[in-house]
Write a structure and sequence with these properties.
Elements (H helix, E strand, L loop, with lengths): L14 E2 L20 E6 L5 E4 H5 L4 E8 L4 E12 H8 L7 E6 L4 E5 H4 L5 E6 L2 E2 L9 E3 L12 E7 L26
Parallel strand pairs: 1-5, 2-11
Antiparallel strand pairs: 2-3, 4-5, 5-8, 6-7, 6-11, 8-9, 8-10
């Protein structure tokens, strides 16, 4: 069954795929829910550290969005379930000077985005995809989903969020990829 509906469009330079490819840097990390933690720190009033059970106890939501890779493929109408970025912001209370977040992941991968971009209602920390637990190859147990950006901004294996005044370049951005990564504007490279 095709995932493309007649009223959906692809960003420029993209083609549709039905299965979500599994691309990543390095090997897929293991997951032990007994010692896994999610942390928020930096320019915030309330630093946060949650266990896996604690993270799963947060209010969840479902968001249906498209997923665009900088390599040119797009998978449409993905059903993600997880915790809204907005929920985390409400919990940690960023300081007025905090304008950006660096997302820190297993294996040293990072990316960063303006808080303003992350406050979009479709942005979430996902642990389910299309009704199933998010597989490790696709970023499980937890990945960031930022539908309006190329997929390298939707970091896999998220462990920490650092709130900062200045934007820090992430793994791909340091290697010449666009820091803004808008798929509809084809902002692939810096």
């Amino acid at each position: 069954m095709s995932r493309l509906k007649s009223n959906e469009k692809l960003p420029p330079g993209q083609y549709r795929v039905d299965e979500l490819p599994a691309l990543h840097i390095g090997s897929v990390p293991g997951f032990n829910q007994t010692n896994w933690t999610f942390e928020a720190y930096g320019l915030i009033d309330r630093p946060l550290k949650l266990s896996w059970k604690g993270f799963l106890s947060l209010p969840s939501r479902t968001s249906i969005s498209d997923f665009h890779c900088v390599e040119g493929w797009s998978r449409l109408a993905n059903e993600w379930e997880g915790v809204s970025f907005r929920t985390i912001v409400e919990m940690v209370k960023p300081k007025p000077e905090a304008g950006f977040c660096t997302i820190e992941c297993e294996g040293g991968y990072t990316t960063s985005l303006p808080i303003e971009d992350l406050m979009d209602e479709a942005v979430l920390f996902a642990y389910r995809l299309d009704g199933k637990e998010l597989s490790p190859e696709h970023g499980g147990p937890l990945r960031l989903i930022v539908p309006k950006k190329y997929a390298y901004k939707s970091a896999k294996w998220v462990r920490r969020i650092k709130f900062t005044k200045e934007q820090e370049l992430g793994y791909w951005e340091k290697r010449g990829y666009s820091n803004t990564a808008d798929a509809w504007k084809e902002e692939r490279y810096g």
